[in-house]
Amino acid sequence: MKTLLRQTNRGIDLFNRLVGWGLAGLLLVMTVLIFWQVFARFVVGRPLYFSDEIARFAMIWLTFIGAGYAYRKGLMISVDIVLEFAGPRLARVMRVLVVLASALFAFILVKYGFEMVGRVSNQTAPSTRVSMMWPYLAVPLGGIVILVNSVALLIDEVVGNDKEERS
Protein backbone atom coordinates (compact mmCIF):
# COMPACT_ATOMS: atom_id res chain seq x y z
CA MET A 1 0.00 0.00 0.00
CA LYS A 2 2.78 2.41 0.89
CA THR A 3 4.47 1.62 -2.41
CA LEU A 4 1.32 2.54 -4.31
CA LEU A 5 1.00 5.79 -2.36
CA ARG A 6 4.64 6.69 -3.01
CA GLN A 7 4.17 5.97 -6.73
CA THR A 8 1.11 8.20 -6.69
CA ASN A 9 3.17 10.96 -5.10
CA ARG A 10 5.89 10.50 -7.74
CA GLY A 11 3.23 10.90 -10.42
CA ILE A 12 1.94 14.04 -8.73
CA ASP A 13 5.50 15.36 -8.50
CA LEU A 14 5.91 14.78 -12.25
CA PHE A 15 2.62 16.60 -12.80
CA ASN A 16 3.96 19.49 -10.67
CA ARG A 17 7.20 19.56 -12.65
CA LEU A 18 5.17 19.99 -15.86
CA VAL A 19 3.03 22.65 -14.18
CA GLY A 20 6.21 24.44 -13.09
CA TRP A 21 7.52 24.48 -16.65
CA GLY A 22 4.18 25.82 -17.85
CA LEU A 23 4.32 28.57 -15.24
CA ALA A 24 7.85 29.44 -16.32
CA GLY A 25 6.65 29.65 -19.92
CA LEU A 26 3.78 31.92 -18.94
CA LEU A 27 6.14 34.16 -17.00
CA LEU A 28 8.46 34.33 -20.02
CA VAL A 29 5.58 35.26 -22.34
CA MET A 30 4.38 37.91 -19.92
CA THR A 31 7.87 39.38 -19.50
CA VAL A 32 8.53 39.51 -23.25
CA LEU A 33 5.14 41.09 -23.96
CA ILE A 34 5.55 43.79 -21.33
CA PHE A 35 9.12 44.53 -22.42
CA TRP A 36 8.04 44.73 -26.05
CA GLN A 37 5.10 46.96 -25.11
CA VAL A 38 7.40 49.44 -23.36
CA PHE A 39 9.88 49.31 -26.25
CA ALA A 40 7.17 49.76 -28.88
CA ARG A 41 5.55 52.63 -27.01
CA PHE A 42 8.61 54.71 -26.13
CA VAL A 43 11.15 53.80 -28.83
CA VAL A 44 9.10 52.93 -31.90
CA GLY A 45 6.18 55.18 -31.04
CA ARG A 46 3.53 52.62 -31.91
CA PRO A 47 2.29 50.64 -28.91
CA LEU A 48 0.86 47.18 -29.31
CA TYR A 49 -2.89 47.10 -28.81
CA PHE A 50 -3.10 43.55 -27.43
CA SER A 51 -0.06 43.04 -25.17
CA ASP A 52 -1.58 44.47 -21.98
CA GLU A 53 -4.56 42.16 -22.25
CA ILE A 54 -2.53 39.03 -22.92
CA ALA A 55 -0.13 39.90 -20.08
CA ARG A 56 -3.13 40.37 -17.77
CA PHE A 57 -4.52 36.97 -18.79
CA ALA A 58 -1.10 35.37 -18.23
CA MET A 59 -0.98 36.93 -14.75
CA ILE A 60 -4.39 35.42 -13.93
CA TRP A 61 -3.17 31.99 -15.00
CA LEU A 62 0.09 32.43 -13.08
CA THR A 63 -1.83 33.33 -9.93
CA PHE A 64 -4.33 30.48 -9.92
CA ILE A 65 -2.10 27.69 -11.21
CA GLY A 66 0.87 28.99 -9.23
CA ALA A 67 -1.14 28.87 -6.00
CA GLY A 68 -1.60 25.11 -6.38
CA TYR A 69 2.05 24.66 -7.27
CA ALA A 70 3.20 26.70 -4.27
CA TYR A 71 0.79 24.81 -2.01
CA ARG A 72 2.53 21.50 -2.71
CA LYS A 73 5.97 23.01 -2.18
CA GLY A 74 4.94 24.49 1.18
CA LEU A 75 5.47 28.05 -0.04
CA MET A 76 2.08 29.44 0.94
CA ILE A 77 1.79 31.81 3.88
CA SER A 78 0.80 29.97 7.04
CA VAL A 79 0.48 30.58 10.73
CA ASP A 80 2.30 27.67 12.30
CA ILE A 81 2.88 28.86 15.84
CA VAL A 82 0.07 26.60 17.05
CA LEU A 83 1.77 23.62 15.40
CA GLU A 84 5.02 24.47 17.20
CA PHE A 85 3.34 24.33 20.61
CA ALA A 86 1.11 21.34 19.86
CA GLY A 87 2.38 17.84 20.34
CA PRO A 88 3.28 15.71 17.32
CA ARG A 89 -0.07 13.89 17.27
CA LEU A 90 -2.17 17.07 17.52
CA ALA A 91 0.04 18.79 14.94
CA ARG A 92 -0.52 15.93 12.52
CA VAL A 93 -4.30 16.07 13.03
CA MET A 94 -4.25 19.84 12.49
CA ARG A 95 -2.20 19.49 9.28
CA VAL A 96 -4.69 16.93 7.95
CA LEU A 97 -7.61 19.22 8.83
CA VAL A 98 -5.93 22.14 7.04
CA VAL A 99 -5.35 20.00 3.94
CA LEU A 100 -8.97 18.81 3.99
CA ALA A 101 -10.23 22.39 4.35
CA SER A 102 -8.01 23.42 1.44
CA ALA A 103 -9.34 20.54 -0.63
CA LEU A 104 -12.90 21.63 0.13
CA PHE A 105 -12.05 25.17 -0.97
CA ALA A 106 -10.45 23.80 -4.15
CA PHE A 107 -13.54 21.68 -4.85
CA ILE A 108 -15.68 24.82 -4.59
CA LEU A 109 -13.29 26.60 -6.98
CA VAL A 110 -13.62 23.76 -9.48
CA LYS A 111 -17.40 23.38 -9.23
CA TYR A 112 -18.32 27.05 -9.43
CA GLY A 113 -15.36 27.90 -11.64
CA PHE A 114 -16.63 25.67 -14.44
CA GLU A 115 -20.10 27.17 -14.05
CA MET A 116 -18.58 30.65 -14.35
CA VAL A 117 -16.62 29.58 -17.44
CA GLY A 118 -19.87 28.45 -19.04
CA ARG A 119 -21.53 31.79 -18.31
CA VAL A 120 -18.77 33.94 -19.81
CA SER A 121 -17.89 31.75 -22.80
CA ASN A 122 -19.93 33.89 -25.21
CA GLN A 123 -18.18 37.12 -24.15
CA THR A 124 -15.01 38.32 -25.85
CA ALA A 125 -12.08 40.37 -24.65
CA PRO A 126 -12.02 43.92 -26.02
CA SER A 127 -8.55 44.01 -27.63
CA THR A 128 -7.83 40.45 -28.68
CA ARG A 129 -11.43 39.31 -29.32
CA VAL A 130 -10.54 36.08 -27.47
CA SER A 131 -13.33 34.31 -25.62
CA MET A 132 -13.39 35.25 -21.93
CA MET A 133 -13.62 31.55 -21.28
CA TRP A 134 -9.81 31.35 -21.50
CA PRO A 135 -8.87 33.69 -18.64
CA TYR A 136 -11.72 32.39 -16.46
CA LEU A 137 -10.66 28.78 -17.09
CA ALA A 138 -7.68 29.43 -14.80
CA VAL A 139 -10.00 29.37 -11.76
CA PRO A 140 -11.22 25.76 -12.00
CA LEU A 141 -7.90 24.50 -13.33
CA GLY A 142 -6.12 26.12 -10.40
CA GLY A 143 -8.61 24.36 -8.15
CA ILE A 144 -7.76 21.06 -9.80
CA VAL A 145 -4.05 21.66 -9.18
CA ILE A 146 -4.81 22.40 -5.51
CA LEU A 147 -6.94 19.23 -5.27
CA VAL A 148 -4.20 17.08 -6.79
CA ASN A 149 -1.63 18.56 -4.45
CA SER A 150 -3.97 18.10 -1.48
CA VAL A 151 -3.97 14.38 -2.24
CA ALA A 152 -0.17 14.46 -2.29
CA LEU A 153 -0.02 16.27 1.04
CA LEU A 154 -2.40 13.73 2.59
CA ILE A 155 -0.20 10.93 1.26
CA ASP A 156 2.78 12.68 2.85
CA GLU A 157 0.99 12.57 6.19
CA VAL A 158 0.16 8.87 5.82
CA VAL A 159 3.43 7.60 4.37
CA GLY A 160 5.81 10.14 5.81
CA ASN A 161 7.11 13.42 4.49
CA ASP A 162 9.94 13.08 1.96
CA LYS A 163 10.59 16.75 1.26
CA GLU A 164 14.17 16.11 0.21
CA GLU A 165 13.02 13.78 -2.60
CA ARG A 166 10.50 16.34 -3.93
CA SER A 167 12.91 19.27 -4.14
From TrEMBL:
Membrane topology: Multi-pass membrane protein
Transmembrane domains' residue ranges: 21-42, 54-72, 93-114, 134-155
Self-association and partners: The complex comprises the extracytoplasmic solute receptor protein and the two transmembrane proteins.
Main location: membrane
Pfam family membership, one: DctQ
Tripartite ATP-independent periplasmic transporters DctQ component domain span: 30-157
Protein name: TRAP transporter small permease protein
Family annotation (InterPro entries): DctQ, TRAP_DctQ
Family: Belongs to the TRAP transporter small permease family.
Keyword Plastid set for record: no
Organism: Billgrantia aerodenitrificans
PANTHER family attached to this UniProt entry: 2,3-DIKETO-L-GULONATE TRAP TRANSPORTER SMALL PERMEASE PROTEIN YIAM (PTHR35011)
Assigned keywords, A-Z: Cell inner membrane, Cell membrane, Membrane, Transmembrane, Transmembrane helix, Transport
Function field: Part of the tripartite ATP-independent periplasmic (TRAP) transport system.
Localization per Swiss-Prot or TrEMBL: Cell inner membrane
